[in-house]
Structures are given as C-alpha cells and as structure tokens.
C-alpha cells in the first residue's frame, strides 16, 4: 500500500511539478492550494506526510503546522518555503524538516523518505 502525501502550496507549478515527482516515487499525492483545503482534507483523511508551504492565500502554514501538532501529533510535516529565516521557526513549531525553495528533486526525495522511512 502506497504512502499518502498531502501537498499544500498556492503555486500551481509546485503542485504539478512536485506532485508529479512524488508520484514517480510511488507515493499517492493529494494537492491543495489553500489553508481551507488543507484543513478539509485533514478532516477527511490523515495522510502519512504533509508538505506544507508557509505562505497561503487564506492562511499561514505555520499556523496550520501548530494545528497539526495539536490535533495530529504524530503526523510528520515538511515545510517548504522561499522565506528566508523560516526554517528555524518551522522546526521550533514541530516540523520534521524544511526545504528552501527552489529545491532539487534529490533533496525532495531525501527529505520525504527520511521522514516516511526513518
């Protein structure tokens, strides 16, 4: 059974490109472009991993991370962002990792599988 990943980013190019790459790794991917979509998906089904952008049109990814830590403590989250200095705050709030945009496919694969298959 393949692992399920929730990819949350407001950039359609990230959703398509990263989503396609994750699928080539044999992962099942659900994409959401908004905080509201992320929350709705988490209410329906808890994935094995969340890849979460910090900037979303209707919310803050760090706030979503805090919500996940309260309601889904064991759910791993990798933050993705181009915001300088965001890594420290992401890790402080409980993210398992951080990928600075733009990132390479090898870095994505390494980060994802370090979390999914520790």
UniProtKB/TrEMBL annotation:
Gene3D superfamilies: 3.40.50.2300
Pfam families: Response_reg (PF00072)
Modified residues (4-aspartylphosphate): 53
GO terms, biological process: phosphorelay signal transduction system
Key words, A-Z: Phosphoprotein
Alphabetized CDD domains for the sequence: REC (cd00156)
Residues in Response regulatory domain copies: 4-116
PANTHER family: CHEY SUBFAMILY, STRESS RESPONSE REGULATOR PROTEIN 1
Name of the molecule in the record: Response regulatory domain-containing protein
